Amino acid sequence: MFLRMPHISFLALFWGATALALPSKSPTSSVPSCRYALEYSQEGVLKDPESFISDFLYWEGKFHQNNVSYNTENGCSYDGTQIDWNTGEATVKHSFSAASKESLQIMLYAQAISGSQCAARWLSPDKPSAAADIAVSVLEKKLTAYLNFNETYPGFGGFLPWFTSDEQDLSPTWDWVNRVPALDNGELLWAVYGAIQALETSPNESYRELAKEWSKWLDYTKSTAAKMFYAGDGNVCTVMDIANQSWPVNDPRQRYTCESNSTLDDPYEGELFTWWLYFYSDLSAQDKELLWEVKRPQLVSVEYNMGGVGPITVQQGWWFSSHEQWKVLEMPYYDVDLVRRLFTNAERARTCNSVVTSTPGMFASVNNITNTTSGELLGYISAAGIPSISSQTEQEHDVITPYSVFPTLLVDQQVGLAWLRNMLIGKKMQNPYGSTESTRVDGTGVSALLTWDSKVTTVNALLGGVQDLVRQGLKKEGLYNAFINVTEREYSRVFKDLKGEDINLCLPKESIPDTGLVDFTSCS
Ligand SMILES: *[C@@H]1O[C@H](CO)[C@@H](O)[C@H](O)[C@H]1NC(C)=O
Ligand SMILES: *[C@@H]1O[C@H](CO)[C@@H](O)[C@H](O)[C@H]1NC(C)=O
Ligand SMILES: *[C@@H]1O[C@H](CO)[C@@H](O)[C@H](O)[C@H]1NC(C)=O
Ligand SMILES: *[C@@H]1O[C@H](CO)[C@@H](O)[C@H](O)[C@H]1NC(C)=O
Ligand SMILES: *[C@@H]1O[C@H](CO)[C@@H](O)[C@H](O)[C@H]1NC(C)=O
Ligand SMILES: *[C@@H]1O[C@H](CO)[C@@H](O)[C@H](O)[C@H]1NC(C)=O
Ligand SMILES: *[C@@H]1O[C@H](CO)[C@@H](O)[C@H](O)[C@H]1NC(C)=O
Ligand SMILES: *[C@@H]1O[C@H](CO)[C@@H](O)[C@H](O)[C@H]1NC(C)=O
């Protein structure tokens, strides 16, 4: 190991120099060093974001491996994998996954198919021209897995529960037998919609054929969504209990029951499922309007005002975790000027709050650090964000995560990258598969883990999500104006004059303290 590393960094320097000497050569052909973040200053990233992005995508792409992030046999994702505390090599994988992780994988493939150089850098840096075919071959297997799942467990109506994917056939995890969530599936549906757009518009006929096959799966969910999830009076169930997952949706014995009184009425990522029901279900026009009415009380205007920064008008968060902004990766919300401005304000608040509170990174729901004695993760921290502009004010702020930057990247790429770099330079925050899950603010621990959520949200944000593909599809279907109208209507009811639009987004001021943690030896 120790003999190998200097050799690799020599190569990296060599290729770097070559790339500089040959302006005609694409920078994507160079092999960056694993710990590339240390080679950039903040000014360097701001001045030349492209090379930092190129290095970032190269190493994040190492996550895309069999038995690490997905199963090459069936094309389906794994939630992620733990890595060795010392070396950083993959150890114990999470053999389960969910529709939300699937959505991140599919969004990435959608952009690879539509020709994104960034997606190719992630998926196939050695041969970017092969990226689309790689994506298509995984999507073929994935579709087979989904169709087989539907055949074995027709009670899910085409949707996915949390599932295990380490065998050829998917099956519900033990705690999701006869249960299915709406939110994650909303994320999956629009990602597939985007991928179908990319396939459909390809000059390759076999891609267009695959689009047709995926459309059958997607169209099937249009016929089952309301039957399964709609509880009447505008209410959508967060989690449905299924009488028997082996019975078809239309079986006279089949029953769907709301698991609790909790309904999917959030104005955050859960809204992706609302749109599916609004556009494609057979609900009455009145029920479709009610879908939006029940959500209204949750769409709230608040002002960030702390440490001399503000007031900044933002949409109140649940916790104000970056995770909550997922919907803007998938649908063209920013086409509504008010929403784009409001979500830019959110990043003013997010970035400046971390400066005001002397935090070296930003907050998002994420896995806690590794207990180095037991080797186990200390649980999942959901309640991480900004309490002063959230409805849930009981929060925990000891851990930050690189993926907190994904919504920032969508509105100001350079500032987002500066924050990303600031977290990546922390001890152990890079490993042979790119970024590490999370680190304590005080630098005393990290989460020796890799997940789709904490890694590929950021990658997708750099690709612009699938907003462009979904916009194109909605226009083709004649649904785009309705999307804009409803979004505009709902947001302009609550938000009139936005305060704080003249405030600059903030750049990081603090560093993660070095408390003696040693970098992963496979990435030093
Ligand atoms: C897959 O990963 C597991 C750990 O999650 C490991 O035990 C197993 O050997 C790996 N299999 C292959 C084929 O690499
Ligand atoms: C079309 O896609 C198929 C399947 O990925 C691939 O094998 C083939 O080379 C492609 N054809 C062209 C002309 O690109
Ligand atoms: C899913 O299974 C149901 C019930 O067997 C079937 O009617 C439906 O066509 C299947 N959906 C797809 C996309 O194959
Ligand atoms: C669910 O349905 C399957 C197939 O009809 C049957 O074998 C199984 O016993 C049923 N389970 C329950 C709990 O009713
Ligand atoms: C749901 O709400 C009803 C009426 O408000 C209440 O009686 C019931 O206990 C609630 N159920 C659960 C599971 O919270
Ligand atoms: C870490 O693991 C050790 C050994 O299992 C245990 O004694 C200790 O309480 C754990 N620490 C925390 C913070 O959970
Ligand atoms: C995270 O770990 C810290 C110890 O580092 C512990 O104090 C805290 O309670 C944990 N939080 C959760 C939600 O597990
Ligand atoms: C959207 O709003 C415009 C202007 O209010 C209106 O003319 C148009 O008919 C609406 N379109 C749809 C599809 O709702």
From TrEMBL:
Q: Which CDD domains match?
A: TfSGL-like
Q: Does the keyword Ribonucleoprotein apply?
A: no
Q: Which InterPro entries match?
A: SGL_GH162
Signal peptide positions (record): 1-21
Pfam families documented for this protein: SGL_GH162 (PF26157)
Limits of the Endo-beta-1,2-glucanase SGL domain:
77-524
Keywords on this record?
Signal
Q: What is this protein called?
A: GPI anchored protein
Which species is this UniProt entry from? Answer: Diplogelasinospora grovesii
Task: Supply the source organism's classification.
Answer: Eukaryota, Fungi, Dikarya, Ascomycota, Pezizomycotina
